[in-house]
Amino acid sequence: MTESILIIDDNEDILEFLSVVLKDSYTLHLAADGEIAQSILDKEIIHLIISDIMMPGIDGLELCKLIKSNVEYCHIPVILLTSRNTHQAHIEGLEVGADAYIQKPFSTELLQIQIANLLTNRRKIKEHFASSPFEDVRIMAHSKTDEAFLKKLDEYISNNIKDPNIDIDMLAGHMFMSRTTLYRKIKFLSSLSPKELIDLTRLKKAATLIACNEFSLYEISKMVGYSSQSLFSRNFSKYFKMSPNEYANSLPRE
Q: Where are the transmembrane segments (predicted)?
């Protein structure tokens, strides 16, 4: 999937310039002000935001602060563009949670490298979480708001892990979010669907139980909510690149 970038600037020339620079690598959404940007955020999956600071209405600093304090969007990296060449301006950008701060006029190469680095780092974190049996879900948090969201989500799945029927509706009700918003949030943070995240949480718990060496694999599959041991084994192999038996045999035993 091509990653999507939301560009916010009241200057049409800047919007057009950035569109030319980035259109071959990303799916672009353009907004002339903060209000239009918010409507796009409500409808689209956005992977990164580039925003000018000086805009009428909601300026870039205020918009960044709103984004970083809202559980629905706070995971999205924000690059702020400004013509203000002062340390205080830079500090203000960091204080509202900006992930990068670039002064105008800027090098297009610098901007492209900043974008690529932010997106690549997030991609690596997701891949590491999905392939590591003992990695905590909160490794994917990019803010305190994200951390609280993931902790609450993980606790609910863990507390109900024996139930084979946990689904997105149950998660959405617990998190007080719509299905669409919850799906979009989980998908961005983990690159997983809610169902895949539930499965992975089950399998990480199974890996912990296997390491304890107290239960049979059949017992463990039931304890983590699988009605079929063959499905349990298939999913375990899919994520961790080895079967439950191979994993058990790879662990040091006293």
A: none
The verdict on 114 and 143 lying in the same domain is no
Query: Are 78 and 68 within 8 A, CB to CB?
Result: yes
Measure the CA–CA gap between 158 and 198, rounded to whole angstroms: 9
The structural domain count of the chain equals 2
For residue 28 the two structure tokens come to: 């672009």
What residue has token string 């190469």? 109
pTM confidence score: 0.80
Of 68, 93, 127, the position where a domain reaches its end is: 127
Q: Is 254 helix (H, G, I), strand (E, B) or coil?
A: coil
CATH number at residue 236: 1.10.10.60
For residues 106-128, give the mean pLDDT: 91
Q: Give me 117's structure tokens.
A: 């680095």
- Computed over its alpha carbons, how large is the radius of gyration of the chain? 21
